[in-house]
Amino acid sequence: MARQGKIARLPFAVRDQLCEKLSDGIPAREVCAWVNALPAWKEARAKYGYGSDISEQNVSDWRSGGFVDWQAERAKVQHLRAVAESACHIAAATGGDPAAVGSRILAGRLTELLESLDDQQAPELARALAALRRGENDAQRLELDRSRAELQRQALELERERFRRQTCEMFLKWHEDQRATAIADGPGANAEKISALLAYMDEQEDVP
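Above: the chain sequence. Below: its structure as tokens.
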């Protein structure tokens, strides 16, 4: 549920600065003097029709409400930043493989939990770790299969290109042969011409 108090009506940037001051231990009266002098508060006061400035009681109420939310959110951000930094170190250690980062972080957390669990809970978590490892192995095999498929595709493409080039070279070779040209341009159906050309090619291959 959104908060509706005086401080909650302030812009996010002002609320963030106010919370920073509370976090630094600045007294409520100094916080009040600071925030009440801001143009942002004057605009909010006029907009919402408040008859008085922000008081120390308002700050006290915010300290037990919005400020607590702010602390929780900042702790979450700091935690994510720490995880991101750890992920960077792990990625560097694994050769820059992003796919391995998440699983290694999770595996490390699960290992910590495994050490703190009792004899009944530990086997369940151990099975989860094994499943995680199997999943990582499956992902590696899938990537290997993809690499092999790509190599096969490239090999087929090279073979196709080689066939096309050889076909063109053969065409040019036989096109320059006067007897082959005469057979191709001569009378008769295509089937007859093909038979005659094949017979001529066999003759040429038998020539030492």
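The chain has a mean pLDDT of 79.
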